[in-house]
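pasting for the record
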Amino acid sequence: MGNVWSIAMTLVGITAVLALTYFASRWYAGRMGPTVMGKHIKVVDRLLVGKAASILILELSGVQYLVGVTEQGISILKELDEPVGADGNGRGTAFNLRQIDFRDILRSRSKRKGGDPQ
């Protein structure tokens, strides 16, 4: 009887360790952010701009978007005219943020919310 009890407790312990490992790996993967490509969407580049904010370049069906991500939500900032990607050397091509007029983006966002920044 004592032998059966020790085997049962061992199985319970192994199951608990496996469950904790599974949930810990899911939590860690969520903290790391998007690291793999999906079937239809790809993260081309990511730049952390704060503790809980980042700017992403996402590609969906061949079209790339500049996206802002915060704890409060996700916003499409701009559809990119020229795609950003890897050149022949495997390095990312240069992306100049000066090509984007952030004032226009802020004006369009504030008009939707009812304000007009000067």
